[in-house]
Amino acid sequence: MTHLHGKHLPRHERGPGQGKVLATVIGLVAALGLGAIGEASAAPTVNLWSDTAHGFASLDGGTTGGAGGKVVTVTDQASLEKYAAAEEPYVIRVAGTIKAEPFGANVVVASDKTIIGVGTEGELVQGEFHLNPGTHNVIIRNLTIRDSAIEGDWDCKDTDFDGIQMDSVHHVWVDHNRFSRICDGQLDIRKDSEYITVSYNQFTDSNKTFGIGWTPNVKTQITIDHNWFRNTKQRKPSADNCAYAHLYNNYLSAQLADGDPVWTYGNWSRGRTRMVIENGYYDGVQHPYQADATAELVQRGSILKNTTGRQDEWGAAFDPKDFYAYRLDPAAAVPALVTRFSGPQKQLGTHTV
């Protein structure tokens, strides 16, 4: 396994006072030309519209999806399935709502593909994007993936209808999507998957939200940043046997509360996972972050509001800056920033380049 080491950036001080947060935020506003200080918490520190993957998906050759391939626009299931499964690279623009038939149908995605919603209207309804073992170099971006839930079947153990499911893949970037009312896992990154980044997504209205693992091997490297978990119960994420799991600037809010004392939780470092959490925001969450005795979890800079239960921290885990450069947003800015800029954005998928 090859690791490309990013240039080290200056570390943010831990637990900055209000003055330091305000100064940082004002600088962000000025840089983006947003104007009013009232919008400061919605000012991102990175180029949200870049087509270049960051985090672990940027290493070992990077993740470019269908770049260089033909650009096509699809409006129906047959066209989406045709181009997604093709051997050659494609940039596939999804325009409007595609309702999968039969209910829960898989759209198989082959290597070297970008699937991106046009503006905020691209949707896959009651279907799943499925990446088979060996698939690599895939970008799924700016889509709404929704409504494969089955009324009355909360656990969905007999259906396995996910929003996106991938097994033993590498170099995948899942960015700016909205997952809602999915029957099983909204996003399942399974088996020995490597070089994954999950950024600026919204996970809403679900039981099993975002699972990683289902393997005895400790190989997965994953970056999870600027995601919003809202009205969800568990797995935000559940990370089992990840070599490196880096979570930063995520927002967990409005957790479903059904009285379950164990399986209602936020982040879980499981098995032999090494997890680092930075500058997150947890609002009304039971068990915000926890770790198995065999795992490691380092947390720094997060804000906890109205939380209860486990807040485990032990082990040294790893230093993400040994692998790639990144810049943290202040934890206090995360709720407004993530609610404004996560999920599908009208600026994305509009152009064909």
Main CATH class of the largest domain: Mainly Beta
Tally of domains? 2
- Which stretches are low in confidence, meaning pLDDT under 50 for 5 or more residues running? 1-42
* CATH overall fold name of the largest domain: Pectate Lyase C-like
* Ends apart, CA distance between termini: 32 Å
The radius of gyration is: 19 Å
Overall structural class, as computed from helix and strand content, comes to: mainly beta
Strand order of the largest sheet: 1-2-5-8-11-14-17-20-23-26
Q: Round the mean pLDDT to the nearest integer and report it.
A: 89
Please report which band the strand proportion falls in: under 5%, 5-15%, 15-25%, 25-35%, 35-45% or over 45%. 25-35%
What is the 3D form?
Answer: globular
Number of strands: 27
What order do the SSEs take from the amino end to the carboxyl end, as H and E? HEHEEEEEEEEEEEEEEEEEEEEEEEEEEH
Give the biggest beta sheet.
10 strands, parallel
The helix count comes to 3
CATH architecture of the largest domain: 3 Solenoid
Main location: secreted
Domain Pectate lyase: 67-269
GO molecular function: pectate lyase activity
Family: Belongs to the polysaccharide lyase 1 family.
